[in-house]
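User: Could you go from structure to sequence for me? I need the amino acid at each position, not a summary. Structure tokens:
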């Protein structure tokens, strides 16, 4: 049984994230989506809120679970017994950044491989930071995030 993890901040989760999850779920026996907690990063949503949104989004995928981790992703993968880190990429800039991370992760644990899954074309411009900014001005984010996320964004910015 091959287990892969898909780590990220998911602040907020997007249709691009869901696209990667959907495609990865067809490739692996088990996918563990890991909401990474980085105290140095200022997030809009709490880890619990991100998990709640992701839980609703992954409901159709029986082999996908959601967890929170505040450790290095390779440490989490080793503890879980996962051999693969999934990283979604949208463009060459994402690839360069993720490639460098994959080298670091591989140097920390050579038993864990990184697999890059490019998002589908309609999600190339979907970026969590841009979504938050657009939502903060009351812009329409319905084509970028699932309804559960759109609702939570409206609640956050109506305060």
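Assistant: Here is the amino acid at each position, in order:
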């Amino acid at each position: 049984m091959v287990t892969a993890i898909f780590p990220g901040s998911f602040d907020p989760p997007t249709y691009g994230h869901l696209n990667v999850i959907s495609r990865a779920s067809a490739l692996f026996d088990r996918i563990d989506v890991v909401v990474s907690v980085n105290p140095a990063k200022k997030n809009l949503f709490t880890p619990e809120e991100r998990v709640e949104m992701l839980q609703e989004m992954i409901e159709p995928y029986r082999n996908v679970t959601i967890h929170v981790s505040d450790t290095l992703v390779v440490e989490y993968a080793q503890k879980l017994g996962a051999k693969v880190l999934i990283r979604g990429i949208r463009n060459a800039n994402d690839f360069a950044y993720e490639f460098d991370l994959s080298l670091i992760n591989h140097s920390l644990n050579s038993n864990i491989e990184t697999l890059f899954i490019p998002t589908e074309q309609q999600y190339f411009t979907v970026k969590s930071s841009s979504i938050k900014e657009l939502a903060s001005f009351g812009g329409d984010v319905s084509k970028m995030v699932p309804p559960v996320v759109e609702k939570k964004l409206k609640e956050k910015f109506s305060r």
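One structural detail worth keeping in mind: The chain has a mean pLDDT of 93.
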